From TrEMBL:
InterPro entries: ComF/GntX_DNA_util-trans (IPR051910), PRTase-like (IPR029057), PRTase_dom (IPR000836). This is Amidophosphoribosyltransferase. The lineage of its organism: Bacteria, Pseudomonadati, Pseudomonadota, Gammaproteobacteria, Vibrionales. Residues 138-229 form the Phosphoribosyltransferase domain. Transmembrane segments: none annotated. Belongs to the ComF/GntX family. Coiled coil: none annotated. It comes from the Bacteria.
Length: 233
């Protein structure tokens, strides 16, 4: 958080440029110019799984046949340009100044925010190596924008696992068995799990199961990106 404040202070002293095209911003524009902001316009999706659809629907055919454990998923877009490189800049380039404006854009597509946000946790070894949890950063800024509570320690990762990148759905599920625990029973019945990218849903399904077992009734997923289905096979 200290590095993020330093970055924001430094950027305020520089000429204001679009975070995508790097052209000067005009009066009333913030972070992105009007042309680049069009990249973030909502596209038709299934409200349940969050995957892109030809038209918006509350539940696609796949969700009707085999619904996920969560009730709704809201995202900014697919894991593609311009969101994918921005997430890489945050995750590997420590460009934390990108997170607040992305969180504000995400807040605009959430119709009825959950009163409690829980970020997907990192194992302590991964946290020490990386120095931050991008899901926790997103949950922090999202909670401020939505005026709701977030708890960073309620969910805990108790088993270190190999990275999920490159694994197929069944491999991801095996990789995550007994990897998480719930430190205490949440008081809210409506909870949102926060992650930067949802790919197959294996991680959030494990966390949903923990919450449902202690009486949580409604679970949202708020993420920056949803990986298109053809990448999840």
């Amino acid at each position: 958080m200290r590095l993020q404040r330093i970055q924001q202070t430094f950027r305020r002293r520089l000429p204001q440029l679009c975070a995508l095209c790097e052209l000067p911003l005009t009066a009333g524009e913030h972070h992105w110019c009007a042309t680049c902001l069009a990249h973030f316009q909502p596209t038709p999706r299934c409200t349940r799984c969050g995957l892109s659809m030809p038209f918006s629907t509350s539940q696609c055919g796949k969700c009707l046949q085999s619904p996920p454990l969560w009730n709704a998923l809201y995202c900014l877009g697919d894991y593609a340009y311009p969101l994918a490189p921005m997430i890489h800049q945050i995750k590997y380039g420590r460009q934390f100044w990108l997170m607040p404006p992305l969180a504000r854009l995400l807040a605009q597509v959430i119709p009825s925010p959950a009163p409690l946000l829980l970020p997907v946790p990192l194992h302590w070894r991964r946290y020490l190596y990386r120095g931050f949890n991008q899901s926790d950063l997103l949950a922090h800024h999202l909670s401020q924008t939505l005026a709701v509570t977030y708890q960073s320690k309620l969910l805990q990762r108790v088993r270190a696992t190999p990275p999920q990148e490159g694994l197929h759905k069944r491999e991801r599920e095996r990789n995550l068995r007994k990897a998480f625990m719930l430190r205490e029973r949440p008081t809210a019945k409506h909870i949102a799990i926060i992650d930067d990218v949802v790919t197959t849903g294996s991680t959030i399904s494990q966390l949903c199961q923990l919450l449902l077992e202690v009486g949580v009734e409604y679970i949202d997923i708020y993420c920056l990106c949803r990986t298109p289905e053809y990448h999840n096979q």
